[in-house]
Design brief:
globular; 6-stranded mixed beta sheet; 6 helices; 177 residues
């Protein structure tokens, strides 16, 4: 019996994520961190490129990249993103949107984007979800030391389910509905 082989994707597969404290702890050898969310993700699924956003000092980031490099064949692309606070939604949104815009602008085919929600702060994860469910369609991953890596199922489409209601409410407040 002949089993058809799937053709490898011609578009690059890119993992986009923040470097989180647990990742830094893993690189520092702290046992409670395990291997950290990013290393878990690259063990779960192969990527051609890792785009890593960081608000950490360059020396911490360099040490982490040195630790991560032997754990993946993917090209490492560090994006320093200074934030006024790791919970400032506006700064986080601007940094994430800028990186995703840069990754998706250019010749076709568009890269297959995967966004890892677990590294970083809850505000960072929230902004990733908003961007992935509206302007930059992407697969979402989440991970934990105890439960491993899973595809995050977000059971709604912001553009289709929520935005029309928000626009309708704004029209009603203006008296134009």
């Amino acid at each position: 019996m002949h089993t058809p082989r799937t053709r490898p994707s011609t578009s690059p597969s890119i993992l986009v994520t923040w470097i989180g404290q647990t990742d830094l702890n893993a690189a520092a050898g702290q046992p409670e961190a395990g291997i950290g969310p990013i290393a878990q993700a690259v063990a779960f699924k192969p990527f051609t490129r890792l785009v890593l956003l960081s608000d950490y000092a360059p020396d911490k980031t360099r040490s982490y990249l040195d630790w991560l490099r032997p754990r993946t064949d993917a090209a490492l692309d560090l994006r320093p993103c200074p934030l006024s606070s790791p919970t400032h939604f506006g700064d986080i949104y601007q940094a994430e949107r800028r990186v995703l815009s840069e990754l998706t602008t250019g010749p076709a085919p568009a890269p297959a984007l995967t966004i890892h929600l677990s590294p970083g702060t809850p505000a960072m994860a929230a902004m990733w979800i908003l961007l992935a469910k509206t302007r930059f369609p992407a697969e979402l991953l989440q991970s934990s030391k105890d439960h491993g890596v899973k595809i995050a199922e977000v059971p709604f489409d912001l553009a289709a389910e929520f935005l029309p209601d928000v626009l309708h409410q704004a029209d009603q407040r203006r008296g134009t509905a």
